[in-house]
Structure formats: structure tokens, C-alpha cells
Design brief:
123 residues, 3 helices, 7% strand, elongated
Length: 123
């Protein structure tokens, strides 16, 4: 987890920047890539906050303080574990919301079509 999280963070950042350069605007960046990068940044921020709230760890029975200069490393380790749980859940929720939006849009379009008066067929 120590090297896996920074690797994914760097790879997703490169992918988003490359997509931005390809499209020429922020609107051209693919939604999944931007969502993945945002989720990784949220995982890291939450891990850093969690480490900063309780900066002690148990070192063979003796509590040891984590200096501020070392917390980024501990946060990267913890963010990797948080990302294992958070990323699949976030993408599943994103897919569910997208499915509901599509279903609602189809329903409203079908109701709009059904509500329009139809002219009788002339022969």
C-alpha cells in the first residue's frame, strides 16, 4: 500500500492532464478519470485528517508521537487502505445515480410523448 497509492495518484493525475491537453478544455476531461482523481485526493485528505487527529501510534506498548513532517507518509499508507474500500463504493454509487438519472429522463420523455395529442391518420 505504501507505493501503490502514490503510483495510482501520479498515474491518474497524468491521465487527467493528458485528457485535458487532448480536449483543450476542462469540459473535455472524461468524467471517470476526474472522479477517480477526486476520490483519491479525498482519500488522502481524509487519511491526513485522521492521522492529525490522533498523531500517536503504539510502538511495542509505548505510545510514540508522529511528527508533522512524517504524517504525509503515514497518510499515504492509510489512504491506500481507505481507497480499497472507498473507490469501489464511490464508483458503484456513481453508476447507480447515473442509472437512476437515465431512467428518470427516459420516463419523462415517454410521458411527454404520450401527453402530446396525436393527429388522426388520413388515408
Amino acid at each position: 500500500m505504501i507505493l501503490l497509492f502514490p503510483l495510482f495518484l501520479v498515474a491518474s493525475t497524468i491521465a487527467v492532464v493528458a485528457d485535458f491537453v487532448r480536449a483543450g478544455s476542462v469540459r473535455g476531461v472524461r468524467g471517470g478519470l476526474a472522479f477517480f482523481l477526486a476520490c483519491l485526493l479525498l482519500c488522502y485528505a481524509s487519511a491526513f485528517v485522521l492521522i492529525s487527529l490522533d498523531p500517536y501510534f503504539d510502538d511495542n506498548g509505548a505510545p510514540s508521537f508522529i511528527d508533522l513532517r512524517f504524517r504525509w507518509f503515514w497518510a499515504a499508507e492509510l489512504a491506500g487502505w481507505i481507497a480499497l474500500l472507498f473507490l469501489p463504493t464511490a464508483f458503484a454509487l456513481r453508476a447507480a445515480v447515473k442509472g437512476v438519472r437515465i431512467r428518470l429522463r427516459r420516463t419523462s420523455e415517454n410521458e411527454a410523448v404520450a401527453a402530446t395529442p396525436q393527429e388522426p391518420i388520413r388515408e
